[in-house]
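Now for a typical sample entry:
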Amino acid sequence: MNTVAPSSYTVKSGDTLGAIAARNGTSVSEIMKANPQLKNPNSIGVGQQLKMPGSGSGGGATQGGGSGGAPQAPTPQQRPPSLENKPEEQSGNAVQGEIFPFWVKPTADWKTRPRYFGSPRSNGRKHGGVDLYAPVGTKIRAIADGRILRGPYYFYDGTYALEVVHPGIGVVRYGEIKAKLAPGVGKDVKAGQHIAFVGDLTSLSISMLHFELYKESAKNDSTLSGGGPFRRNAKLIDPTPLIDRLFKKTFG
C-alpha cells in the first residue's frame, strides 16, 4: 500500500488548528504529533509552516487535488466541507424548539480554561460566558425563537456583539461576531435562523463565539455591563447547562 508523504501548510490570518485539521481531514492531536515543536494548540502564527499528517493506512490528512502541494486557504465564498450548509439551512425551514448555535461542532470543549464560565482573567475579572471555538466566518444561528434587542455593536478586539431575547430561556449575547448580519434591532428570529458569523479577533490566533446568558428580565435593562468579579449585569447566568443541553439535542 502506498503512503502519501506529509505535505505542509502555511498558517493564514484567522486560522485555528481545529479549522486546519477540519480542512485536511485530520485532527488537532495528529497535527501536534507531526509538529513536535508545537507546545500549545492555541498558539500558531501567520506564516508558520506546519507538516500535515500523511493519508496512508493510518488515516491522516486528505491531500487536496491530488497534487501533493500545500492546501490553499478558502476564499470567503469557499468554506471547508465541515462547514457546508445542513438541509435546514439550505431550505430556510425553521427548527422547532432549541438548537446549538453552530451547524457544526466547535473545535474545542467549553469547560476547559480559558473557555469556561468563570475562568480567571486579568485584574481579578472572571469570564462572563463560554467560548465556542470555530473558524472565522462560521455561521451562527439563533438557539431558539426570539427578538433582537441590540446590535451589532463593538465588543472586543475587532469583533461585535448581538443581544437576543429568547422567551423561556433568557437574554443571550452572541459575542465576538462579525459586524454584518441580516436581521435588525426589533426583528423576530426563528430557532435555527442564521443571524451572524464568527468574527476575527485581530490580536489573537483563535476565533470563537463568545456566548453569554442573562435572566429574561435583563431585556428591560439598558446595558449588560456591571460590577462584581464578572464586570457584568447582576442577572448574568452560567450558560454551561444550556449549551450542554443544546449540544446533546443537536448532535446526540
